[in-house]
Design goal:
This is Phytocyanin domain-containing protein. GO terms for molecular function: electron transfer activity; metal ion binding. Keywords: Glycoprotein, Membrane, Metal-binding, Transmembrane, Transmembrane helix. The chain crosses the membrane at residues 7-28, 161-179. Residues 26-127 form the Phytocyanin domain. By secondary structure, the protein is α+β, with helices and mostly antiparallel strands. It is 32% helix and 18% strand. The protein has 5 helices and 7 strands; from the N terminus they run αβαββαββββαα. It has helices at residues 2-24, 44-49, 75-80, 128-131, 161-179; strands at 27-29, 58-62, 70-73, 88-90, 94-98, 103-108, 120-125. The strands form 2 sheets. Strands 4-3-6-7 form a 4-stranded antiparallel sheet. Strands 1-2-5 form a 3-stranded mixed sheet, with no helix packed on it. α2 (44-49) links the parallel β1 and β2 (58-62). The protein starts with a helix and ends with a helix.
């Protein structure tokens, strides 16, 4: 019977880990199997265009730290491949960057000539309203129905999947502990 409980415990922990990955965002390896490199002529603009980035997604840069780095820069420096004013510099060869803001996030390799050779990427995180197709014009309202004003927007932070999962985890954890 002890073995069955251990198996159940392992299963529960695997499910929790999987749920945490889903709630935490998607991990995108820049350049897919090629990684962050100048070899093979990876088209990072095309790579990014095929992705839909969201908040809490993780951008993973894998590269040889002996030959490359990752610099987050402003748009003007991205366009001109100017690595002189980085917002952040990463040099580990295995850099995970969590996206916490909407908008464009510009990265380039600061090794001379690499950005000019195409080793730069624009990660664009759209707001939900930016990614929705334009809606059709509303149908005419019947003249007999009163028009009710929409409620004013709440200043409260939106309830995210991550906060739901955290609450759920706090409720489930005592049950898991009680099983052992």
């Amino acid at each position: 019977m002890g073995l069955e409980r251990a198996d159940l415990g392992v299963l529960v922990m695997v499910v929790i880990c999987c749920c945490m990955q889903i709630a935490g965002g998607t991990v995108y390896k820049v350049g897919d199997s090629a990684g962050w490199t100048t070899i093979g002529k990876v088209d990072y603009k095309q790579w990014a265009a095929t992705k839909t980035f969201k908040l809490n997604d993780v951008i993973l840069f894998e590269y040889s730290s002996q030959f490359h780095n990752v610099m987050q820069v402003k748009h003007v420096h991205y366009k001109s491949c100017n690595a002189s004013f980085p917002i952040a510099t990463h040099t580990s060869g295995n850099d995970s960057i969590t996206i916490t803001k909407h908008g464009h996030h510009f990265f380039l390799c600061g090794v001379p000539g690499h950005c000019q050779a195409g080793q730069k990427v624009d990660i664009n995180v759209l707001r939900l309203s930016d990614s929705l197709p334009p809606s059709s014009p509303p149908a005419a309202l019947p003249t007999s129905s009163p028009i009710v004003p929409a409620p004013s927007p709440s200043k409260a932070a939106p309830f995210s999947v991550l906060s739901w999962f955290s609450c759920y985890l706090w409720l489930v954890m005592p049950v898991i502990v009680a099983l052992f």
